[in-house]
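2 proteins. here.
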Amino acid sequence: MKKTLLVVFTVLALVLATILADRATRVRPKVDNIVTKTDSTSTGLPEPELTLKDLDDKDVSLSQYKGKVVFVNFWATWCEACKVEIPFLIEMHQKYGQKGLVILGVSMDEEGKSVVAPFVEETRWDVNGQKLPMNYRIVVGNEDAADKFGGLIGYPTSILMSRAGKQIKRITGLISYEEIAKAIESQL
């Protein structure tokens, strides 16, 4: 009986210590007027100079999207939270693409195009009852690309940029469709 209680107490103590350590070391985002799960330290910064290759080996530069609202989404094929957001992004691209929204998916898979291209080609996503492919531009990212946006502490990480090329919001982790839509709509 004493051994069982000791094991239970030890497990509870470890769980509590883990929770407290997580809270103590977590980056605390500032609350602003659009999305509460954001890091506003990058708000107002200009978009970085960035050129990456898409899945057709064509150069894609952020500067080519001047005058458009750009939603840069850092993701990976193995990231479960990223897979939850992908249908949202497909729907957002359908809904707002004609109004000036560009969604740029930056894959951070270490294996690069050899893993990302088949994933994008073969995977279909449930979007309002339809099985759809990723319909927005995908580029292959790297640590340099992440560093230009101030580094990443997790996936997905998204940065919303205004038509003027200023970083408006930085979102780390999974957010809801409503939060993404509200942030984007505020810029269109």
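next one coming up
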Amino acid sequence: MISIIITAYKEEKTIGKAIKSITNQKIIEDYEVLCVCPDKETRDVIERYERTNHKIKHVEDSGKGKPTALNIAINNAKGDILILTDGDVFVSDNSINKIIKPFQNKEVGIVSGRPISLNPKENKWGYFSHLLTDLGAHQTRLNQTKKNKMIVCSGYLYAFRKDIIEKIPIDALAEDAVISHMIFERGYKTAYAPNAKVFVKYPDNFKDWIIQKKRSAGGYNQLKFYIRKRERMRSFPKEALSVLRIFSYPKSIKEFFWTIGLIFLRLYLWSLIYKDINLKKKDLKEVWLRVESTK
């Protein structure tokens, strides 16, 4: 059996589409869908689906953050394989079958799906989202898996064996990175299922872009507290070494200049992370802010 866990908060407008994108599939394994949320508006939508489909279940969330919500869901899950996704995204047809297939190899402990940007590529922020998902995330994961190296799974859609992880650190900002490293450190392989797609709306303005990227990239700084051996996919030195590679992506003069702009934005982002976390020793919980333009 597999347990599909959807975490949500104030996502009553999108949770229905997230649920239907899963239940409309012909999933080869017996499964359950656990929807975890703390707010009444989202819970009301979930319960409407729960009344018509016995596979769907609302799980009460204490409202203490995503890692705590995931720990509650994991404790309630009946499946041997857990698939995690969010209430403000939706998955592609047959994505569930695709993401569980690599587990036929007993050495595989965790599998990542592939995020696809829903943003229009015709504007700067949409272009950034496509570059970072197509080249930064997708191509990097393909290259890493070809070399039998570890990958960090995408928090928008990933799956792992339940018996490997007992508890997620409750203060983890980038829980997908923490879980990926914990499972790899315990001797399991990471895998990539590029045909298990998840469709994501990314930030469309400077403020939200900084909030989201600082949270995800800055969350990697927590790994030193949980992981002994860190084979990191994301860091400032690694980004610096890949600068030339990103210039293979633009297809027009406009996109070329946007790419140059992205380099300076990432430099600014890493300077903020360094200042907030390394210099000021800022509490990482302060970095977790809701990104409204992605909803």
